[in-house]
Amino acid sequence: MSLPPGFLDELRTRTSLAQVVGRKVMWDTRKSNQGKGDLWAPCPFHQEKTASFHVDDRKGFYYCFGCHAKGDAIKFVQETENVSFMEAIEILAGEAGMQMPARDPQAQQKADRRTQLLEVTEAAQKFFRMSLRTGAAAAARDYLARRGLSDAAQERFGIGFAPDDWQSLWDHLQGKGVEADLIIAAGLAKPSQKGGKPYDVFRNRIMFPIADPRGRVIAFGGRAMDPNDGAKYLNSPETDLFDKSRTLYNHGPAREAAGKGQPLLVAEGYMDVIALSEAGFGASVAPLGTAVTESHLQMLWRISNEPIIALDGDKAGIRAAMRVIDIALPLLEAGKGLRFAVMPEGKDPDDLIRAEGAGAVQAVLDQAMPMVRLLWQRETEGKVFDSPERKAALDKALREKIKLIQDPTLRSHYGEEIKQLRWDLFRPARSGGARKPWSAQPQVWAETKSSLLVAAGDIAQDRLREAVILATVLTTPEIAEEFEPQLERMLCSDPDHARLRDAILRHAGAPGNLRDNVAEELGPDPLETLLSARHVAVVPCVRTPGNVEMARMTVAETLAKLEAQRGLKAEIAEAEHDLNALADEVLTRRLRDAAKARDAALQTDREDKREFDLGPNGAPISREERDAFSALMDQITFTKRR
Fold it and tell me: Reduced to 3 states, what is the DSSP secondary structure of residue 223?
C-alpha cells in the first residue's frame, strides 16, 4: 500500500526503539547509559554471552557488532516477529496510537484473504483435535502411545486425527458457515472430478499442524494409518499461507529454545522433532516434504550460527546430507556454518531416543563433524587414488567446490583443512607399515638446531609484522576499508592478533571512531598491549599518527613481506611433500629459488635497519634470525631414495 508523506517519519518519532527492543532483550546495565539512549544487550539474532548488540535510541537505529544485523524499529519487528514490512508498521502504529491510512482495495483484499484462511485452518485444527478423542481414532491413539507420545506431548504439538471419511471435515466446516472456496484455498479439500461435492485431502491420518513462527496454523501434515496407503506422509498443498520451501516444522518453539542456549537441530520429520523436543532438545526443526533449501539455511542461521543436521543412519540420510553441502557452500560466511551428526546405522533420532535415551543422542551430537569433513568424505569415500590422474581428479573436484565459498578468509581455511586431509591420505607409509590416515603429521626433514631457530624466528617475525599492520590501521582508520581484502586474507599466528583483526573488519566503515569501537568490543587491554609494544611504538606512523600516505605505505610493505615469508613456507611444505617420494636437484633449486624470493622481499632490511623504520637504538628482530633460513639451507643434504 502507499503511505502518505511523513507517516513513517511520525511513526519513528513516536516510537521508542529502546522500548521495542527491550521486549526481546535484557539490557547490560554496566555498558548501557539509559539517560543518553545508549543501550547494549546480547544480540537477539544470534547466540552470544557478551553484549555486542547496540541501540542508539536517539537516532533510532540498532547494530550488532557480532552478526552485523542493523536497522530501525520497523526492521526489528519484521525480523523478530517474522512479519512483512506493512505488518510491522501496523504493529508499531497500533502501539503508538496512530491510525493506519486506508489501504488500496487490492492490498486490503489480500490481507483479508489471509486472515480468512487462517481462521479456516484454525477451525480445522480444532476439528482434528476433537476427532482424536472419538472411538474412530482408537487405532491412532494406540499408535501414538506405542511411539511414546504422552497426552501432554500430543496437546503441546496439537496432534489430531482425520477420520476415514471422504467429507467429514468438509461437512463440519460447511456447517460452521465456512465458504467452499476458502476450504479449498486453505488446502483442506479438493474439487470432485465427477461433479460431486469436494472431498477432504486428509483421510484416516494422524494430523500434525504446521505453524508459522508466530504459532498460527498455516498447513497440516498427515501420517497414514493404512499401511497400504500410497503416501505414508502427506503435507498440505502450497497455498497463500503455506510455502514448504520457506517453512520449518516447530520453528517458533525452536527459535525460543535456541535463544536460551540449546543447540539447533535439523531432523527429517515430525516424529523426530517431537521425540527430540520431549527428550530435552527443544530447539529442533524439520523441513516439510522437501530437501533443505537456501531459504531454510538462511532461516536456520538467523536462529543459530551453527545448526546441527541430525541425519538418519541410512543411505537416504547420508545422501540428504551430501545435497545440503552443495546448497550451503556458496552461502557460508565467517561464523555461519553447519555440523553433521549421523545416527547409528538404521536408526533415526526417534528410534535412538526410545532405545537408548537422550544421552545416546547427546553422544552423537558431541561427535558432530564440521562440513569440511563431510565434503572430504563425499569426495574420497570408496575411491582408490593409486595414480596421478586419480589424485589430480580429486584435487580438481575439491578446488571446484571450495571456489564456491564467497568469503575469502573462510575459503582459505577450507583450503588449509583440505590440504591437511590430503596429506594424511597420500602420505607414504614408513617402515613398511600400513598407512594410517587422519593421524600422521608431516615429518621434519632437517633435524638441526638451525631449523628450530628458523621456525621460532619465523613465527616471531610474523607476529611482529602482524602487530605493525594492525596498529597502523587502528591509528590511521582512514585506510581500513582500503586494506579490508588483505586483512581478511591475513592469517594471524597470534590469537590476540586474530581477534583484533576480526574486530577491525567488523567496524571498518562503521559510524564512530574505529579505535574506540574496537576498544568498546574487546576492552582496552588488547589495544594497550598492542600499541605499547616496543617494536610497534617506534613505528613513525603509529608514534605520530595523521600521515595517511605513510601509513598506507607501511601497511602495504609489511603485508608484502608477510605474504612473501608465508609463501616461502608454503613452497617448502610442498617441496617436502615431493621430497618424501623423490629428492633431486630440481627440488633443491625450488627451495633455493623460494629463498631468493623471500630475500628480495626483505631488501629494505639492510644496514640502516629500515624493517620498521627503527632508530639507532636497535631493532627488535636480530639479523641472525633474518639469516637463519640461509643457515638451514646450507645444512640440508638431499639424497635420492633407492
Answer: strand
Structural domain includes residue 511 = yes
The three-state secondary structure class of 418 is helix
pLDDT tier at 572 (50, 70, 90 boundaries)? low
pLDDT value at 595 more than 60: yes
Nearest Cα to Cα of residue 166 among 139, 186, 129, 194: 194
Whether the Cβ atoms of residue 224 and residue 234 lie closer than 8 Å to each other: yes
pLDDT digits (tens, 9 = 90+) for 402-414: 999 998 889 989 9
Q: Residue 202 maps to which CATH number?
A: 3.90.980.10
Q: Identify the band that residue 110 occupies on the pLDDT scale cut at 50, 70 and 90.
A: low
| Angle, vertex CA 217, rays to CA 213 and CA 220, nearest 5 | 115
Q: Where are the alpha helices (DSSP H) in 56-210?
A: 73-81, 85-96, 105-131, 138-146, 151-156, 168-175, 180-185
pLDDT for position 571: 58
Last residue of some domain: 96, 115, 140? 96
The reply to whether 468 and 500 lie within a common domain is: yes
Task: Provide Rg for the chain, Cα atoms.
Answer: 31
Name which residue leads in pLDDT, 329 or 642. Answer: 329
Range 218-254 burial, b when 16+ CB lie within 10 A, else e: bbbbbbbbeeeeeeebbbbeebebbebeebbbbbbbb
Q: Is the model's pLDDT at 273 over the cut of 90?
A: yes
17, 146: one domain: no
Q: Are residues 358 and 478 in the same domain?
A: no
417 inside domain? no
Q: Cell 631468493, residue?
A: 596
Which of 74, 96, 118 finishes a domain? 96
**Cα 83 from Cα 86, distance rounded (Å):** 8
Amino acid at 180: A
- Does the structure show a pLDDT above 70 at 417? yes
Say if residue 87's pLDDT is above 60: yes
Q: How far apart are CA 225 and CA 210, in angstroms?
A: 19
What is the residue range of 76's domain?
7-96
Domains identified in the chain, total number = 4
* pTM across the whole model: 0.57
pLDDT tens-digit readout, 153-195: 999 999 999 999 999 999 999 999 999 999 999 999 999 887 7
Rounded Cα distance between 10 and 96, Å, is 10
Whole-angstrom distance, CA of residue 201 vs CA of residue 541: 73
Neighbours of 512 (CB within 10 A): 11
Beta strand 199-200 pairing with 189-190: antiparallel
Supply the DSSP string of 253-296, one letter for each residue. HHHHHHHTTPPPEE-SSHHHHHHHHHTT--SEEB-SSS---HHH
